[in-house]
Description:
Helices cover 59% and strands 5% of the residues. It contains five helices and two strands. It has helices at 4-7, 18-56, 64-83, 94-112, 143-146, and strands spanning 120-123, 130-133. The protein is elongated.
Amino acid sequence: MSSTSTLLxxxxxxxxxxxxxxxxxxxxxxxxxxxxxxxTVMLMLLAGALEVMYNVLDMGTMPKYISMVNWGCxxxxxxxxxxxxxxxxxxxxVCPGLTFLTFFYLCYLxxxxxxxxxxxxxxxxxxxxxxxxxxxxxxTWGSLYYS
Length: 147
């Protein structure tokens, strides 16, 4: 049994053995050939569901940049799904793409749209009562992506 230091370099985590590196690249490519189409279809369904909810069923208004980000990510993953066997370097865009989409929904939209659609907490100075108005919060924005 060989130790990790004989299989991988310490700094860059690259394989020292050419045969192991070749096997790893083949398995990585096979993994992406199976997983990227699933991720792409799910992103398409989620982006399509938001479009239907907000543009067809008129459940509210959705800024155009949300549609552009959703369909831009779908296009990126569609490109990766189509070209991953020829351009293996595209596989390095998977994690940053998913991280960007998660950041967009969990941090950016909650921060930007949270100003208009947040839970309102008010304090009545005369009575000292605190009232919480949850009716203005829009739970549908990121609920599809949160799950």
